[in-house]
Design goal:
168 residues, alpha/beta, Leucine Aminopeptidase, subunit E, domain 1, six-stranded mixed β-sheet, globular
Length: 168
Amino acid sequence: MGISISRGDITLQHVDAIVNAANSSLMGGGGVDGAIHRAGGPAILDACRDLRASQYGKGLPTGQAVATTAGRLRARWVIHTVGPVYSETEDRSALLASCYRESLRVADELGAASVAFPAVSAGVYRWPVESAARIAVATVRETATEVADIRFVLFNDEVYTAFERALG
């Protein structure tokens, strides 16, 4: 398994699966979630509506992951995962780690050889970037997977630098 980092737009990645830092509604939102829905087009939202109408009527639980089509993206699939909102009074690290583990599990089920991850929860969910990077990198390194190419595609210099440090 190879792990790499880059600064850029995750929606432009040519990989088998792009991981979406989704909200539990699966209906799109801001940040990475909104960018993926806009770039991928209505097919992603339609697939998310189908998921809500079937097994995720109350939304996708935090720390879980589920796949849909990637619509117009260069990827084959989008793996949606719901990261936890950061809390200073409650340790939610296990939920954040679960996002990465579950996304890799779904990628393996799909037969994906390459996956691009954003920094889950490090944007609008206010997770401190140094901690988010350590959890992401450690979890991916510790997770048994058939995915050969794992990329962290990061949206700004601060997050990129934190992931660079975490990769050591």
